[in-house]
Amino acid sequence: MTNLEKYRQAFVTALNADEQKLDDLKYQDIPEWDSVGHMSLVAELEDAFDIEMETDDIIDFSSYQKGIEILKKYHVEI
Amino acid sequence: MMEITARNIRQWSRLGPRAVYGLALAELIGRDERVYALSADLGVSSGLGRLMAEAPERYLNVGIAEQDLIGVSAGLAKEGLVPFASSFAPFITMRCADQVRMNMGYMHLNIKTVGLSSGVSVGGLGNSHFGVDDVALMRTVPGVVILSPADCVEVVKSVEAAAAYEGPVYIRLTGEAGTSGVHTDDIDFEIGKAISLCTGEDVTVIAAGSMVRVAVEVSGRLSDRGIGCAVLDMHTIKPLDVEAVRRAVERSRLIVTLEEHSVIGGLGTAVAQTVAGGDVRPRVMTLGTPDGYLKNGSYPYLLEQCGLTADAVTERIWDALQE
């Protein structure tokens, strides 16, 4: 599985998100991406890429696109 | 039942006690048709946002009326249901004290109340929202079980234990989101049975709620100085695990109680009463918030002002052992 596939799969697993609508997805666009869903998503990504995200990054992670940018800090290229 | 896994523990620590209370209650409501969630206009603050959206028929908002919150809960309990009513700690205990006394105490109804953000974690909201006297108040109501979970694992366990227990329970939530937990795995959690976290022969720190994590840190620091420091996680403040206290008394030359609550009327008082009633009486040091009003400030600042940091507690114990 590529990093992109892992990244997209995390959204589908944690948020039950529609894979066709991920590119423009933002925090709270769907009911599942609330604070609880956000932490589930973070946990999925941490497990998928074997990283531990810092609190500031978890807070800044406000969209699908922003997540790609943040993961670069952890040497994960999507 | 909620699964206790390393991943869930990590996630819960980030979400904090209030959100995890909401998750645990939502899970419980999904499998027990008797359970209802109630709040006094603090549903989202109680971590109940998802439940309110997904199962609105199981959530009752009585408005900003805590006396009614207890009254409505009493009615549900009389009908055989299991109400969990939450609000900030001073509002769910002191503001509705008479309703608590009559319905949870005298009537001994099967009501579960949950005090959100007890202690001083809502530092910016000030003294009106601090929960430093809720345990003192609830301890005086006969028959009410008081639970003070040390971390989010214990929050989940407390909700499950409270639901399974037939009778009134007060669950006191302390600490804030983003704080690392005490437990890294599943635990045996039984109402009235303290959990031994560290062993040591010189001192025993008996702690509750957010202070359990501090106590564990203190134990490590004292160990570095050659002092054996046991830690008891007293997650049930009432009924107190008297046997665990007595065992601690027999092996320790100093007993320290540690709580994010006034030094008057809480865990410290309960332990001191137990020690005073026994034959062996080591010195008891009760650490908590002072008998007075605090200024507003951040949570870490207030804990520092109260001497409830690992640094301050370690020095207090060290100094006491040198006397």
Would you write up a description of this structure?
The complex is a heterodimer of chains A (78) and B (323). Chain A has 78 residues and is mainly α. Chain A contains four helices and no strands. Chain A has one domain: Non-ribosomal Peptide Synthetase Peptidyl Carrier Protein, Chain A, CATH 1.10.1200. Helix content of chain A is 55%, strand content 0%. Chain A starts with a helix and ends in a 6-residue tail after the last helix. By secondary structure, chain B is α/β, with parallel strands linked by helices. Chain B folds into two domains: 6-172, Thiamin diphosphate (ThDP)-binding fold, Pyr/PP domains (Rossmann fold, 3-Layer(aba) Sandwich), CATH 3.40.50; 195-322, 3-Layer(aba) Sandwich (Rossmann fold). Chain B contains 13 helices and twelve strands. In chain B, the strands form two sheets. A seven-stranded mixed beta sheet of chain B has the order 2-1-3-4-6-5-10, with helices on both faces. In chain B, strands 7-9-8-11-12 form a five-stranded mixed beta sheet, sandwiched between helices. In chain B, β5, α8 (152-164) and β6 form a beta-alpha-beta unit. In chain B, α2 (17-31) packs parallel to α8 (152-164), α4 runs parallel beside α6 (97-106) and α9 (211-224) packs across α13. Chain B is globular and about 60 Å long. The N and C termini of chain B lie far apart (49 Å).
Which fold name fills CATH's third level, the topology of chain A? Non-ribosomal Peptide Synthetase Peptidyl Carrier Protein, Chain A
Taking the alpha carbons of the first and last residues of chain A, their distance comes to: 12 Å
Mean pLDDT rating of chain B:
96
**Using only CA atoms, what is the Rg of chain A?**
11 Å
The number of distinct structural domains of chain B comes to 2
Per CATH, the superfamily of the largest domain in chain B is Thiamin diphosphate (ThDP)-binding fold, Pyr/PP domains
CATH structural architecture of chain A = Orthogonal Bundle
SSE order of chain B: HHEHEHEHHEHEHEEEHEEHEHEHH
